[in-house]
What we know:
The chain is of the alpha/beta class. It folds into 3 domains: 17-118, CATH 2.40.50.140; 124-280, Rossmann fold (3-Layer(aba) Sandwich), CATH 3.40.50; 367-420, no CATH class. 46% of the residues lie in helices and 20% in strands. It has 13 helices and 13 strands. It has helices at 2-16, 24-38, 76-79, 121-136, 163-173, 193-207, 231-239, 256-260, 268-312, 315-318, 320-363, 365-370, 415-420; strands spanning 42-53, 59-64, 69-74, 91-101, 106-116, 153-158, 180-185, 212-217, 244-248, 263-264, 375-377, 395-399, 404-408. A 5-stranded mixed barrel has the order 1-2-3-5-4. A 5-stranded parallel beta sheet has the order 7-6-8-9-10, with helices on both faces. Strands 11-12-13 form a 3-stranded antiparallel beta sheet, with no helix packed on it. Helix 5 runs parallel beside helix 9 and helix 6 runs parallel beside helix 7. The protein is rod-shaped, with a radius of gyration of 60 Å.
Amino acid sequence: MARQKVEVLNAATALDSGRRIYKVSEITREIRLLLEDRFPAVWIEGEISNLKKHSSGHIYFTLKDEAAQINAVFFSRQNQFLKFELEDGLHVIAIGRISVYDVRGNYQLYVERMEPKGLGALQLAFLQLKEKLEKEGLFDPARKKEIPQYPKRIGIVTSPTGAALQDMLKVFKRISVGLHVQVSPVRVQGEGAGLEVAHAIDEFNKKGGVDVLIVGRGGGSLEDLWAFNEEVVARAVFKSHIPIISAVGHEIDWTICDLVADHRAHTPTAAAEHLVFYWNELEAHLKDFSRRLEAAILLLLRQKKENLNALQSSYAFKQPLTFVRQISQTCDELARQLENYIQSLMDRKRHSFQVLIEKLNTLSPLSVLERGYSITFDARDRVVRKKEMAPIGSFIRTRFRKGLVESKVTKHLEAEELNGR
Length: 421
């Protein structure tokens, strides 16, 4: 309570003393007026960094040298007549005024006009290394390895604390195949970062155990991405026997690592999406097949259930004993019909057989004998049809209806002689 009274007394004392107390906006405005009065037009030489082109046409960037940097804005009305393309690393001379952006309290350069002054050191180094490696064939498409369509083991070389890693892991977690992801944590910017990235790539190749590597980081300025423009990284990517996807920065960012790698993804998230693309397709196909199979099984079960219901509601299941009795009665009727058919068939066959017997009896030689005729056989049981078959002195047998007579031929008579008797 005593402390509160002291604070109230101090505030009252300050008010009574007549001292000027500024609001933040007031002091910011005063500083802005001082800067604008002091630097209404100034020429500043520096290297462009963190270049951002807004959809409104305004260009935001940083001008820096080896010791300091200043934020700058180049409004669309002033930059519409610019004859060259601004880019990170470009060494320029900017003409403008110094002022303060009240909302953030930052002082910055409002550019009116700009002139190029050679190439920035980093940009020049990039172009020189690019030309060197291109002549050696490190960018040759013919030597690039195929990225596996269904990788199960994925290695990642990136910062363990960056948003890029979390973005990639989120993509991998969306699929259900259970990918094995191994992360090699490295620094992705600053002195020695390139050596760490190259060493991590070499270690993955020595140990093995992964199907593909993602090497990259999130977006940033040319300086931030420079580790991936170092020759040691390019050489490590080139000699890797594991396929490598380079995922450095954003779509507009290109590094030496992108050019050497087997595949370039414009963001780390895009690299992860590329690796799960066919897994997603396969999973979608399997889900579709599963749905179709489930629908087919349900349809079959529904049909079988309908058939079962129809059987359950049928007369046979409602009155099973009556149905059996009807079947039994039908069987008895069929048996009687079969018996009658067989009896009728036997009668017809018997009649036909009797007719045949009568015909055979009519044609039988025995019928001829019955009428008083006889049949004569020679000694060899041949029927004697003419007298020459029974020479004089031979024995013959004559068959009557009842009995048999054996005779000896003593004389042959001609037909005329027989007629005369």
